[in-house]
Amino acid sequence: MGKPSKPRKLAENEARAVGRMLRTSPRKLNLVAQSIRGLKVDRAIADLTFSPKRISKSVKAVLESAIANAENNHDLDVDELVVHEAYVGKNLVMKRWKPRARGRVGRIEKPFSQITIVVREKSAETSGEAA
């Protein structure tokens, strides 16, 4: 006897994963998210693997989680997956203080952020119609 399940927010050919509490600013994380938006998942994983950005390892883990969700929970074909959405949001900000000259204090903010990655299955017929 539980609560009725919520309706699915995504389409039937989509799956998502959310990475929370990533220790970087949303602005820096958005640069990595922009680099994988719209790519096929194998190409996106290759780009993240060889990216010089520190946070790309965490983004790669979230992308792999979205791929696993698509394969195991929604029975989607991994070879046809495309990164449909990759968007970034703010999370907690830790405030720290640093002593400065003449008895003053400097505020240091250590921001966290989160990323949501939605992968979509693009079948051969669908991509043929779009072209």
From TrEMBL:
It comes from the Bacteria. The keyword Metal-binding does not apply. HAMAP family: Ribosomal_uL22_B (MF_01331_B). Coiled coil: none annotated. One of its GO terms (biological process) is translation. The globular domain of the protein is located near the polypeptide exit tunnel on the outside of the subunit, while an extended beta-hairpin is found that lines the wall of the exit tunnel in the center of the 70S ribosome. This protein binds specifically to 23S rRNA; its binding is stimulated by other ribosomal proteins, e.g., L4, L17, and L20. It is important during the early stages of 50S assembly. It makes multiple contacts with different domains of the 23S rRNA in the assembled 50S subunit and ribosome. Belongs to the universal ribosomal protein uL22 family. Signal peptide: none annotated. One of its GO terms (molecular function) is structural constituent of ribosome. This is Large ribosomal subunit protein uL22. Keywords: Ribonucleoprotein, Ribosomal protein, RNA-binding, rRNA-binding. GO terms for cellular component: cytosolic large ribosomal subunit. Part of the 50S ribosomal subunit.
